[in-house]
Amino acid sequence: MDNELYLKYKKLGRGNWGKDLSMLKMMYMGLLNLRKDEETTPITEMLLNYFLEIPKARKEGRTIIMHPFNYGPEIFYAMNLVPLMQETYSVGLAPLHLNEPYLDITNKIGYGDNPTVCNAQRPLIGSYIQGVAPIPDLLFFLSTPCNSLAMTYQVFEQLAKIPTFNMDVPYWSYDKPGEFYDDKVLDYMINQTKDLISWLEQKKKQKLNFEKLQETMGKINQAREYILEFNELLKNIPCPANSLGGFGNFITMVTRGGTDDAVKSTKWLRDTAAENVKNGIAGVPDENIRIAWPYTHVFFDGDLLTWLEETYKAVVIMDILGFYQVLPHDVSTIEKSFESLAKGTLDFSMIGTCRGPIEYYIEFLLNYVKDYKIDCVIMPMQFACKHAYAMARVSSEAVREETGIPVFIFGCDPYDSREVTSEAIRGKISDFLTQVVL
Ligand code: SF4
Q: Which of 11, 252, 279, 287 lies 20 to 30 Å from 89 when distance is taken between CA atoms?
């Protein structure tokens, strides 16, 4: 990072953010220092600005709304709210293991344990008790992708007494004719989207501006087009992006979807991949293994994928979150914009693949393996993620039967380094790659 830019961001981050934002401030400074010696990308700048927006909004009296990692913030931006994706905090602490003391406090006060409730969100409760969890003005969450998330958000809602809107995401398909199709799904989601907007209008005492909504939806469409192209480019051999490329799209859409920042970041990712394809440049030099990772990362081990790249010349094409699959939609009218918001919710990363019968996930995984010419599938798995835990074995059998590709499922807690250590994980993956794949 250019020194002048570094000093600018350092200065912007100074001052008192407030006790409940103290951990966020630390994360901001950590990110800035981590990127100090790297070339600055639009994603780095976007994330730094995203963090800065929270204390700024607090000072200016703007409304901060917290939402989970499985909902795009476009409607919040269209209504001039300041979104804070909760897991930026509770999962963002994991690479530095700063979530672990709060997991211990959460245990101590008796709110669940890891096999029952996922550690992706549990630090929120322990850190709230310590007074350092961010307190938004409003809270929003959905019934998917898991009961675990919905439960922890409800506990937080009750503890912090925050006005909350909860959305129910239905099971069935809205667009694919067949046994899982139900023509009521889309209307059900559109109605809930309108209910959410009415609730926000009431809380903000301000009506939704239709022009602003359409402008926002136009921007989200543009970003979705870039992501579609990026996802297509990743089918090339060698893959033109490294193992974190796709995750860049996810973090962009879940934090800044519907803004110019998101258009800029997704375009940059698309352009970089396209340029690499044109010049025959691999995201992982001398690519030797193409891995499908149809689950989340092991968040406590930020170097795991780099280790895979360096040790085995292996590229993880995309994780399940990075595989953003929402299509651009017709947003030419207000009704169409509501429809697009509803479809965006139903198809969001991890929602589209996990909100219904196991067939949705199996289809996703089989297409992923075939379309991206995958050599093997690797899935970390934890018992707390009950729906994924149940799907993993069945879908791995489907992959083996239909494609003959080996699948490796290993147990660990992606948010707690103390359950299965980095060394143990690397050992297991090494055994699989050397003894089965290579
Ligand atoms: S890892 Fe599974 S259980 Fe945890 S938040 Fe994600 S979907 Fe829910």
A: 11
Q: What whole-number distance in Å separates Cα of residue 102 and Cα of residue 109?
A: 11
Cα–Cα distance, 150 to 311 (Å, whole number):
38
Residue 395 Cβ < 6 Å to ligand 1: no
- Ligand 1 atom, smallest distance to 387 CA: 2
Q: How many CB atoms are closer than 10 A to CB 291?
A: 24
Q: Is the pLDDT of residue 58 over 90?
A: yes
**How remote is the CA of residue 149 from the centroid of ligand 1, in Å?**
7
Note the helical H segments in 357-421.
358-371, 386-403
Please provide the average confidence, as pLDDT, over all residues in the chain. 96
Q: Give yes or no for residue 118 CB within 6 A of ligand 1.
A: yes
Q: Whose CA is nearest to atom 3 of ligand 1?
A: 385
Is pLDDT of 113 > 90? no
- Whether residue 298 has its Cβ less than 6 Å from ligand 1: no
Give DSSP secondary structure letters for 379-391. EEE-TTSHHHHHH
Confidence of residue 114 (pLDDT cuts 50, 70, 90): confident
Q: What is the model's pLDDT at position 46?
A: 97
Rounded to the nearest 10°, the torsion over CA 321, 324, 329, 331 is: 50
Which residue minimizes the CA distance to atom 4 of ligand 1? 118
Q: Which of 118, 156, 415 to mutate to test the pocket of ligand 1 (most atoms within 8 A of CB)?
A: 118
Cβ(45)–Cβ(262) below 8 Å: no
Percent of the chain with pLDDT over 70: 100
pLDDT digit string, tens, across residues 248-291: 999 999 999 999 999 999 999 999 999 999 999 999 999 999 99
Cβ pair 368, 374 in contact under 8 A: yes
Atom of ligand 1 nearest to the CA of 388: 2
Residue 381, ligand 1, Cβ within 6 A: no
CA 94 – CA 88 distance, rounded (Å): 10
**Ligand 1 centre from 148 Cα, in Å?**
7
The answer to whether residue 361 scores a pLDDT higher than 90 is yes
